[in-house]
């Protein structure tokens, strides 16, 4: 992708490539976009100003964009006339298991202070505006983990080793939910 300068055409794939290569990600356009989108979902889905456990679900699902990742991989492989069978439903789940193993506990983070870089500063401000400057709704961290407490495993009725996402807001409000099944591209065509 870098050799062809096609990162913008494959934004989600580029995110996952960078995420796999680093112990944490911040100060990139897609990370700011993810934090803004989850924050917007948190605000939109809050009922009567009360934050509920379901509030961030749609934003996180959209932000993780696993179905889009699958589509971008298929597109890139087709472009280079490579075998796309790896991205069929059964193989793609195994592929995603490997990706999730790699990004586990490698958070996406919003910087604590407004960046001096003007472009990053504007994106940081957009996250804050999306939350109405409410620290309870400003998402500052997203992490994929399988380190769930026994209480969470029991609450979700899932076995140890199940992946979950967790978010944290600026006011230290936490949410987590299980990645039950990954949303795959609806029309896979190897």
Molecular structure report:
The chain is built from 7 helices and 4 strands. Helices cover 45% and strands 11% of the residues. With 190 residues, the chain is of the alpha+beta class. It has one domain (8-178). The two termini are 21 Å apart. A 4-stranded antiparallel sheet has the order 1-2-3-4, covered by helices on one side.
Which descriptors would you attach to this protein?
4-stranded antiparallel beta sheet; disordered C terminus; alpha+beta; 190 residues; globular; 45% helix; 7 helices
**SSE ordering:** HHHHHEHEHEE
Radius of gyration (Å): 17 Å
Q: Which residues sit in consecutive blocks of at least 5 with pLDDT less than 50?
A: 180-190
Task: Kindly report the average pLDDT value.
Answer: 83
Biggest β-sheet description: 4 strands, antiparallel
* Shape summary: globular
Percentage of β-strand residues: 5-15%
The domain tally reads 1
Please give the oligomerization state of what you see.
single chain
Euclidean distance between termini CA atoms? 21 Å
DSSP strand count: 4
The portion of residues assigned to helices is: 40-55%
Q: What's the tally of helices?
A: 7
The structural class is alpha+beta
Any chance you could write out the topology, listing elements then pairs?
Layout lengths: L10 H11 L7 H17 L11 H8 L1 H14 L9 H15 L4 E2 L8 H13 L8 E7 L4 H7 L7 E6 L4 E5 L12
Antiparallel strand pairs: 1-2, 2-3, 3-4
Helix pairs in contact: 2-3, 2-6
């Amino acid at each position: 992708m870098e050799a062809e300068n096609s990162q913008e055409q494959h934004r989600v794939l580029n995110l996952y490539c960078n995420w796999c290569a680093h112990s944490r990600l911040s100060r990139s356009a897609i990370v700011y976009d993810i934090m803004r989108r989850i924050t917007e979902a948190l605000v939109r889905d809050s009922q009567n100003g009360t934050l509920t456990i379901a509030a961030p679900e749609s934003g996180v699902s959209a932000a993780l964009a696993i179905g889009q990742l699958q589509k971008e991989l298929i597109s890139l492989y087709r472009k280079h006339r490579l075998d796309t069978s790896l991205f069929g439903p059964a193989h793609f789940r195994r592929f995603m298991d490997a990706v999730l193993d790699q990004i586990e506990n490698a958070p996406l983070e919003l910087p604590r202070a407004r960046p001096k870089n003007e472009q990053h500063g504007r994106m940081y401000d957009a996250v804050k505006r999306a939350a109405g400057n409410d620290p309870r709704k400003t998402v500052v961290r997203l992490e994929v983990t399988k380190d769930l407490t026994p209480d969470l495993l029991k609450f979700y009725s899932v076995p140890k080793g199940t992946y979950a996402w967790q978010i944290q807001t600026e006011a230290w409000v936490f949410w987590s939910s299980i990645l039950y099944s990954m949303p795959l591209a609806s029309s896979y065509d190897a």
